[in-house]
Design a protein that fits this description.
It contains 13 helices and two strands; from the N terminus they run H-H-H-H-H-E-E-H-H-H-H-H-H-H-H. Helix 3 crosses helix 9. The protein has 366 residues and is mostly helical. About 1% of the residues have low confidence. It is globular. It has a two-stranded antiparallel ribbon with strand order 1-2. It has one domain. Pathway: Cell wall biogenesis; peptidoglycan biosynthesis.
Length: 366
Amino acid sequence: MRSLLTAAAISLAFSLFLTPVFIRLFRKWGWGQVIRTPENVHNPSHGEKRGTPTMGGTIFIVGTIVGYLVGTWTGNNPPTVSGLLVLWLMVGLGAVGFIDDYMKVHRQRSLGLSGWRKVVGQVIVLVPFAIIALNFPNRVGQTPAAAYVSVFRDVQALSFMALGPILGWLLYLAWISFIGVAASNSANVADGLDGLAAGAGIFMVGAYSLIAFWQFQQVCTGGPEFLSACYPTRDPLDLAIVAAAFAGALIGFLWWNAPKASIFMGDVGSMGIGGVVAAMAILTRTEILLVLVAGAYALASGSVIAQRLYFKLTRGKRLFLMSPFHHHLEMRGWPEITIVVRMWIISGMLAISAVGLFYVEWLSRA
């Protein structure tokens, strides 16, 4: 518990007190937000955001690493493979976003990496994560991830390796890549209004910290009578610590990112959030539950997909005035702060519902 609280507190303090320093540095380096022209036309208020320091995701990524390392050291809980895997996906996907952001800032255009190049970069980060996650068993044979589709825990009937080692590995790698790409891009799509992605991300990562800590309390170390309800998750306490550190860093950053934002997280931040959420879902064996935990992000990306499908099927008609959905609400005249706060509420309710269902599933077994 000491490690968890210390990690969250250090990360929060890092983001809260050092963000102004980074803002001055980013302004000096010319890291200002580029606003694309169509968005500026449809949303005139967005033009005022041009030049606001961006790439602020680097702040809470560094803050998470500092908080996590200090927390594990003070609580005498050395970093584990599972915790380092979460950091890998956070830093790796954040690096893909950083390249995209830097290209936009350097060229002073809203176009960075193309869609497919971005996906290729994400897969390059996700494949090593997936391979390592199925190796490095601990003393009782538990690996960080498992070759199963999971909901509240692994679904034994849905094993990739049941199809043979070669096809099983290929499907497993494709599954992990799909989760990571979907989570990081959904977080990226949701990052369209000041504080929306950061505030929603706090609820999501906070929910996963609770889930991992509960798994630590119910780890499979008892007799046969406990086996049906316990969790074979490897390093659940370390997962709770790294998630708490990330949530703390996001809270500190949100102080400066909430409307009206003094700094934007950029793609480096949104993809970093998606990486942490995806890693936590995979390593806590709650992959399908991720749809509910990250429901606010799923709403944003789902609205974009629905808009494109409807546009093609109706040959030019639009389902929303503008996608993602939060921009549709802007076009309907909703104030930005109203949209952001209500999306936070929706994200909180969905995350709490997911934790509730997770606990109910445990009760049904216990």
